[in-house]
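Hi U.,

Before I forget, here's the chain from the pilot set. I'm dumping it here mostly so it's searchable later in email.
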Amino acid sequence: MTQTKTLIVKGNGEKEFFDAEKLESSLVRSGASPETINEIVAHIGELKDGMSTSQIYKHAHFLLIKIEKKAASRYSLRRAVMDLGPSGFPFENFIGEIMREKGFTVETDKIVMGECVAHEIDVIAYNENKLIMMEAKFHNELGIKSDLKVALYVKARFDDLKEKKYFYGKERNLDEGWLITNTKFTSTAIQYGVCCGLKMVGWNYPLKGNLQDMIEDGDLHPITCLTNLGQHHTNELFGRGVVLCKTILENTDILKDVGLKDFEISKIQEEISNL
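Structure:
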C-alpha cells in the first residue's frame, strides 16, 4: 500500500506523513475482515493536512462500529485503557487485576517503610516465589511519555525498599520493582532501565510481555472497551472496584445493581463474549 503525503499531527504535537500501513496493522490486530479493513483505509485515506492521530482513530473507530462492532471493541483497547483515568486509581486496580490473573496475591495503594523513608506503593504483588512492588504511571494523553526523570525517581525508591524485609505471605525482601505505564517510555528512560536493571513495562515495551500483550494474552479487557456501556454506569462499576470485562461476565448481577435493564445487560454480555 502506498503512503500518502498528508501531514498529520501526533499526540506529542510532532508532525509526520500519514502511514496507511500503520492504520491497516492496527485494524488487522482488531480482527476486522480484509474487506472492512480495505474500506476503512480507503475512506481514511481521504485526509486533510493537520488532522490529528486522535481524529483519525475516532473516525476509524466510528466506521468500525458501523461495520464490525466486535472488532471495534478490540480496536479501541489502547484508548480504553486511557479511559481508565483521569485519577489513575482505576488503572492501578486494572494492573492489580492483571497480576491476580497471573496467580499473585495483590494489594493496592499501600504505604511501605523503606530503609530511609516511607513510600506510597501503587501495586504490591506476591506469590510463593516473588515479591513485586509496582509504580503505575498513568497518562491520559497518548503523546505523554515516561521519561528519564521518572525512571531515576522510581529506581531510587526501589533501592530504598530493597534494604528492608517485609511480611507478604512470609518474611522476605523485595525481589522486583516495576515501572509500568499505559503509554511509552523515552529512549533515554529505556537506556537507563536496561543499564540499571529496572523492570519497565509500557504499552509496546518490551517487545514481548508489554502491557498490550499482558491484556490480550489473558483476555483482560477493561470495561472501557465496551461500546454498550455508558460513562455513568462505567463510573458506577469503577466505584465498586470493577475494571475487567471478565468480572462482569462472571457476575452479571452487578450490572443490575448499577441500574442496567435486562436488554442492555444482554447486549453487554454479547459484546464481552465477542472480545
